[in-house]
Amino acid sequence: MPDAQPSLFGDQPIDPLADGSSRFCRAIKPQLAAIDEATRELAAGLPSNLYLGTSSWSFPGWKGIVYDCAASESTLARDGLAAYAQHPLFRSVGVDKTYYRPAPRVEFERLAEQVPAHFRFLVKMWRGTVEHGVRGRAAKEEETIDAFLNPRMATIDCITPAIEGLGEKAGPLLFQFPPMHIRGSRAHRGFLAQLSSFLAALPKGPLYAVELRNRSLLEDDYAARLANLLAENNAVPCLTVHPSMPSVEVQASLLVLDHTRPLVMRWMLRGNHAYGEAKDLYAPFDALVEPDDASRDALAHLAHAALTAGLGVWIITNNKAEGSSPRSVERLAHRISASLKVHGIDS
Whole-prediction pTM value? Predict the structure, then answer.
């Protein structure tokens, strides 16, 4: 089982498998910063099935952009989501902390209570389900077991708490695989077969998204196999802007996107920096330090196609994409809005 860690809100350590509620400290809650009328009009003109958001919400550097006052990371983790969710452009957020440990239902309920009815969360599943060698414990069993692509553990520890806690506010449940050591055609086919069996055994109903960091899985005939197994199991690829992968347009082409299923994309990291380097360069994440027009245009183009088909679209943006994810979201919203207006599509 993962070690006890602070909750999704920065509170005291809890048992990840506990069902009971906890006492939480309270402080002055940050409010939404002043939003100009042009931004509100931009948001009002976007289709209701377009879910833009950022990776997490607890960044002190967003003072004056998202929050009205200076607040610590822990304060924002605890009390910032309600303000974040009032921003007219933010209809989603990435819940990344669940990658490091499963969260109990009570924490997801607390998330859902802080956001409006139209808001949808993108939740990363625990890393044990997608990474070799991480052991966990399903429910309260005594024996620890290998969690990698274990559908029972994924269901008990990750999926059920998220779906039951978030209810209708649950968006994509993301299985983000780290780079894997896959060598040779036999290993590639073996992984794809295991992934197919895993997805087939998960509960029906949630929107599952799969994000890969192995470029080789898009080579040869593996991309077609991957596309087929996702479609057969009602899952979708999560296209990602990340140095380990080709452009999102290339990913979309190779995976032959199912035009009846929602589109899920994440704008993570520029190709010219490592993650830590970008973090140091862009902090405190209050400005677009290195605009990435090519990625923005590609994301907007794919979003336009899906929205034109009436599909739901999620785009979650990281601070390491350009320097400030709220500002990236605003520019991306302008780009998508302009594209839709040209073709006579609005909310």
Answer: 0.91
Secondary structure letter of residue 63 according to DSSP: B
Segments in the chain below pLDDT 70 = 1-7, 10-27, 135-144, 343-347
Length of the chain: 347
Each domain of the chain, given as residue ranges in start order, spans 31-342
Class of domain 31-342 (CATH, top level): alpha beta
Q: Angle at Cα 197 formed by Cα 15 and Cα 262, nearest 5°?
A: 80
DSSP E strand stretches across the chain: 5-6, 13-14, 50-55, 92-95, 120-124, 135-136, 145-146, 170-176, 208-211, 235-241, 263-267, 313-317
Residue with tokens 């077609």: 224
Residue 270 to residue 322: CA distance in whole angstroms: 7
Kind of pairing between the strands at 313-317 and 263-267 = parallel
CA dihedral angle for residue 122, residue 126, residue 131, residue 132, rounded to 10 degrees: -160
Residues 6+ apart with CB under 8 A from 238: 172, 174, 176, 209, 210, 211, 264, 265, 266
